[in-house]
Specification:
about 300 residues; mainly alpha; 2 domains; three-stranded antiparallel sheet
Length: about 300
């Protein structure tokens, strides 16, 4: 068995050397495909995690009138608690003092501007989340209009959950994912075709040998395997080159920016680089095997 596999690998390497120019073209194509795929997977995983974070962080805020009585505030709290779909233990009361302190923390050095205002213009509010982020609008609607809540104004809904921002983020994330997926499919097809062309040239140069092997009883897999190994070598070589290029690009161009962007706690992360390397190598193997396997079918009919 070991001798047979050695024979298959040696035959594949000999064929690759014999078609060096097309082999290099196939490897470079796979490298480009895997490099773009690596960027796409990393960016796509970040976009996916970020969109999930946006969905999970959607918070409904019900703003109270300054004139709201204790009875009205208690009734609003009871209604929110009993509303189906509200996340248990997510309800939080934010007083006017808490609201101004939170704003000061967000503004940082610019919080000195608040000292120029007369009094505290921020209302007290209740903050809570829906169990299912997709049901946020339904939950918010169930609380709207309660006595003691500020009436909604144009551009200032109450309750408010940042619907416009959340929808824009999720729509943009979906568009980016579709574009990356489309690019990946087109480039993968190009890589499969080029590897197939490389294998086709190799088979054409050895077509008599293939015919003789078939005539003396060689099975399809015995004939096919060296060519599939040839395609898989091209695929893996391109994938390894792409991972090296990705590692160099990340370290030299993106590392500082990514670390800065991820500095905030709870920031979404892209896929781990070791896992990305494994995925790219497996994809290279798959593309190489597919390209050679599809090409071989026509030549095995003797």
């Amino acid at each position: 068995m070991e001798t047979r596999w050695k024979f298959f690998v040696l035959e594949a390497l000999k064929s690759l050397r014999g078609n060096f120019a097309t082999t290099v073209a196939a490897v470079v194509t796979v490298l480009v495909v895997m490099f773009i795929a690596g960027i796409g997977i990393a960016l796509g995983s970040y976009v996916y995690n970020y969109s999930n974070k946006v969905r999970d962080d959607v918070t409904i805020r019900a703003y109270l009138k300054d004139s709201a009585t204790d009875k009205q505030i208690a009734e609003i709290q009871r209604t929110i608690t009993e509303t189906p779909g509200v996340q248990p233990d997510s309800l939080q009361f934010i007083s006017k003092d808490d609201a101004i302190l939170r704003l000061q923390e967000q503004l940082g050095k610019d919080s000195e501007l608040l000292e120029l205002t007369l009094g505290n213009p921020l209302p007290a509010s209740f903050e809570f989340k829906a169990v299912d982020p997709d049901q946020t609008a339904t939950v918010a609607k169930a609380v709207a209009g309660l006595p003691g809540l500020d009436p909604p104004r144009p551009g200032l809904p109450n309750p408010d959950y940042g619907a416009g921002k959340a929808d824009r983020v999720l729509k943009t994330a979906g568009t980016i994912t579709l574009v990356l997926l489309g690019m990946g499919v087109v480039l993968a097809i190009a890589a499969v075709l080029l590897i197939g062309n490389t294998i086709r040239l190799s088979i054409f140069a050895r077509r008599r040998e293939v015919e003789v092997m078939k005539l003396v009883g060689a099975t399809n897999w015995f004939v096919r395997l060296p060519f599939m190994i040839e395609g898989m070598i091209c695929g893996v070589a391109g994938a390894i080159g792409a991972t090296i290029l990705l590692a160099v690009s990340y370290q030299t161009l993106l590392a500082d920016r990514v670390e800065t962007a991820m500095a905030g706690s709870g920031s979404p992360n892209a896929i781990a680089f070791p896992l990305l390397v494994v995925l790219l190598i497996l994809a290279g193997l798959g593309i190489g095997a597919l390209g050679s396997g599809l090409t071989m079918r026509r030549f095995l009919q003797v």
